[in-house]
Amino acid sequence: MNDFSESLMVHFRRVERLKKEALGLPGINLNERQLYDLELLCNRAFYPLNGFMVQKDYESVLENGSLANGSVWPMPICLDIPESLATSLEPGKDLGLCDSEGFLLAILHIKDIWQPDKRLEAQSIYGTEDEHLHPGVFNLFNKTESCYIGGIIEGLHHPLHFDFMDLRKPPSEIHRSFTQNGWRNVIGFHTEKLLHCAHKEMVLQAARDARANIFLQPVAGIPAPGDLDHFTTVYCYKAFVQQFPKTMIMLGLLPFASRKAGPKEAVLQAIIKKNFGCTHFMVAPDQADPFMHETGDHLFYPPGKAQELVKKHGPEIGIEMVPLDPMVYVPGQKRYFPRNEIQPDMEIREISSSELRRCLEFDEEIPEWFAFPQVVAELKKTYPPRHKQGFTLFMTGLSGAGKSTLAKALYVKFMEMRDRPVTLLDGDIVRSNLSRELNFSREHREINVRRIGFVASEITKNRGIAICAPIAPYEESRRFNRDLISQYGGYIEIHMNTPFEVCELRDRKGLYAKAKQGKIKGVTGVDDPYIPPSEAEITIDTSNTTQAEAAQMVMTFLEKKGYIKTNGM
Ligand SMILES: Nc1ncnc2c1ncn2[C@@H]1O[C@H](COP(=O)(O)OS(=O)(=O)O)[C@@H](OP(=O)(O)O)[C@H]1O
Ligand SMILES: Nc1ncnc2c1ncn2[C@@H]1O[C@H](COP(=O)(O)OP(=O)(O)O)[C@@H](O)[C@H]1O
């Protein structure tokens, strides 16, 4: 047996022994954030940490920005557990750490269990206790359990990933590749943004100044609402890397749960980059700011603070800070300039991320000075122009307001267009198929409406047209659906605000008559409320609008917003 197979055997025996030991252990299924932390603890990206923090390290981090032994460490890496579990555990015992399906990944040898002072933590790490001002504080107060548990970890398996395995190499392998390639100076570039032409100039400038190669390490972590899916971003990064000479740059993904703690998080990123073998670390003025996608006036931390703090701790960590100076395009000279070198008389060009998204949605050209065509091609696969995206028409209103009639008219129009699959989710159809067991209580109506929203979101995601026509009397479930569906395509709420008296007169199903006679209770508009939508895209009163006019109003809206092209209709 050679050395390699022998060490593999030792590893398998250890895993088998630990698995047996773990059979009788209490266990906990980790959430996404905890899994990312565990992965970086196990693969040594968080070196010198060898487990979730113990109490004295945690307190020292909050007080001094270092571990109890004095080595720089800016933020807690703690495992939070509910109090009910904490009271059943004790130091000296073990806890199994599992993924969301209960698959055992590691064993924690418990050293400490304590209740943290979250206000103190918020103030020390984020610089505020106001959860409305900072998403990291919001998560700490609302999405973090009340007890922390610390101790050394013995890893059995790495958390499972099925995507981009070639880009998920651990620090030891990446470090080895640098050495094999003969790279002595390597600049780590940690990013969560899409990268375009100006970024290439910034990276080239930094590489020239430091005579270094580049390790581009985008974050594969927990997406914020409105973020692109990470499949698209990774393909964009691959396309970006192709713009450099092959021997200059290497791409790797970092499984990392960002806390958006600005300067302190930038120091943590610097430690991680050092552990991957980088000698330099590129830091943006707004690095890890919770509002880094926005303009300078909206940032939470003072611009440049992250660069300052990394520079200060760089010598101790063993990594040199390289400032990433934002560049802008000057069309008069057909080149990029650092923003701080722009003179008042120089004309500059920029495209914000929302502007870029708008250009993609309306199929407008994206200038080559801004983005590489290969990156744009990847973005276009995810953001097809609006007329190729899916969308949901969500009609809401009293029974008899004209929802089904309009829904059917539109269904026929879209079927005639034949460019996207169309699904009609009328209130009655849903009630007799998806929601047969539900009644008309508030709770059941909310479930019913959310179910419709879920189905519509799947249809929209797959680029179809969903036409929904429930009463949907409450704002909560309508808002829930709006937020869910708009992630995948268009969401257009149509308020059918036909007056109650008109609906009552129509009473095609005899619903109102039965309510009047006291035969049924909880009828919307009679003895159950209808809360009108506050932000409907279209409002239609069918007491003074014909069926054809109502359909035309919707089609005109869709055309104006780019969701349909009506030539030939
Ligand atoms: N108590 C009560 N209140 C309101 N409506 C009632 C009730 N009982 C039965 N119906 C009939 O059920 C049809 C579908 O209702 P929805 O599923 O759209 O309602 S909800 O969105 O869940 O509130 C709805 O269909 P439409 O007339 O097409 O709106 C009603 O005719
Ligand atoms: N734009 C309209 N103008 C006149 N009558 C309408 C219009 N839309 C619907 N109606 C009539 O109102 C009644 C109820 O319409 P329906 O579409 O079934 O309402 P809902 O689905 O909101 O309960 C039907 O008899 C229908 O013919």
UniProtKB/TrEMBL annotation:
Pathway in which the depicted protein is active: Sulfur metabolism; hydrogen sulfide biosynthesis; sulfite from sulfate: step 2/3
Superkingdom: Bacteria
Gene Ontology process terms (BP): sulfate assimilation via adenylyl sulfate reduction; sulfate assimilation, phosphoadenylyl sulfate reduction by phosphoadenylyl-sulfate reductase (thioredoxin)
Protein known as: adenylyl-sulfate kinase
Residues annotated as signal peptide: none
Ranges for domain ATP-sulfurylase PUA-like: 9-156
GO cellular component, one term: cytoplasm
Lineage of producing organism: Bacteria, Pseudomonadati, Thermodesulfobacteriota, Desulfobacteria, Desulfobacterales
NCBIfam families found in the cross-reference section: apsK (TIGR00455), PRK05537.1 (NF004040)
